[in-house]
Input
Amino acid sequence: MKTKSLGSIFGPLATVAGVAIGHLVAALNNNWQSPVISLGNRIIDHVPSWAKKLVIQIFGTNDKLFLIATILAVVFVFSIIVGRAFMTGKRTLAYALIAIMAIAASWAALLDAQSNLFSIIPALVSAGVTLIVLRWLSQQGVSSDETGLTFSRRDVFKVVGIIAAVSIAATGAAKLLAQKASVQVERIKIALPKPLKFLPNPPVDPALTTPGLSPLFTPNADFYRIDTSLVVPNISIEDWSLEIIGMVANPRTFSYAELSARPVFELDDTISCVSNEVGGPLVGNARWLGIRLDDLIREAGPTSDADQIMGYSHDGFAAGFPLAALDGRDAMIAIGMNGEALPLAHGFPARIIVPGLYGYVSATKWLTRIELTRFDQKHGYWISRGWAERAPIKTQSRIDTPMDGSQLPPGRLAIAGVAWAPTRGISKVEVRIGTLPWREATLGPEIAKTTWRQWWIDWDPRKGKYAISVRATDGDGQLQPEAYVPVEPNGAEGWHTINVEAF
Ligand SMILES: Nc1nc2c(c(=O)[nH]1)N[C@H]1C(S)=C(S)[C@@H](COP(=O)(O)O)O[C@H]1N2
Ligand SMILES: [Mo]
Output
């Protein structure tokens, strides 16, 4: 085998070992991150929004998987170049390329939230291991005659290399999983505090008798997830604390025990992502349990010129909303969701929920700090990326069933869906089938003005093709606008329309 071709094998093999060991080393310390993840985080921070949109359009919520696969592919190609350079005597070039990777990964690590100077250790270890393994592999090669390695020998160390790499990667992954499992166990054991007054039990859910209609409460496992975090942060309540700082008279830090010992209350609230397209899935309704934010902020004593509350997360995200939004609308620091401690993916151990505001300007997950500040001084994560600084949730309505493009068997069926306009509530939903006049839909129970409302109508279609549209009127009597408006910069507008064919 030619030494150059050997380089194409040795480079990637050595790199796999390097990356796997870096991964393993990263698992040893909470402030360290696998180099691949750090690089991914920087790409997420800097990728232009058109590219991000394209990726989300193609891959949906698998966008993160796609990103990691892309990084690994680039590293793979890079490692082939390194291997070939190394094996053809251009060692300085190979060293320089590895050094560039090490510097890039170190830079990425230093910009991670929770990083310190030592956070570059996984990146350096990765580069070091890659180099050592590459040298070792090349020595195995040189020890045979000039024509290359004998077949059996090559096979032997290929196998050794692959086995070593796979086992190392597995160890690293196991380590990370073990950490996650321990926080999972801790979370399951949490006994949530009881509210002074429980909200009434939810009414019978109309979704039980209308297949395809969204349930009144979205089960945690089905709740949409949107965040910039490549890996879900695993935060032990032992290590967690919440600071309230900035333009306040009495800055304070709460432990989890201190915070959850305060009076808690329940809130039924629908949250939505500003990126939810007309008719889109990025919305859900939950019964949240939490501590009243108004009380915490009042105790902290904001200075008279503070006008923004900024929530910061463990992973470096930030979302800010008006101090004036604490107007009795039941903003909270949520620790419970639908009767359980917050799921890890939804912000364990604590997040902010502000009824009526899109998630990106309010709902900081993995919350660790609240800062009283000013809109003209600090901006949340998405604001410099082109999204509006103030973003109340717009009135939206969605047809859940039948599905767009479906073919309907003969007979009576329900057209049904949900409509939401927190904190205004929904007063009317209308449906238009084809060119027929608008029909008023039956509305499901209104459990709160902050939650969505289910709606439905009966329909016995004659054969034909139909466009079906829905529109909602909010609790203030405002009709949802018809004209389409894209999600950027402050949320989509327009009537959801589907096309079906009846037989
Ligand atoms: N730490 C953190 N919190 C975050 C985000 C994030 O990227 N990081 N995204 C926000 C956005 S854009 C939305 S829409 C909501 C989504 O909350 P969910 O994933 O629980 O549905 O979380 C918000 N909180
Ligand atoms: Mo969002």
DSSP finds nine helices and 19 strands in the chain. The chain has a mean pLDDT of 92. Residues 226, 273-275, 359-360 surround molybdenum atom (ligand 2) (CB under 6 Å).
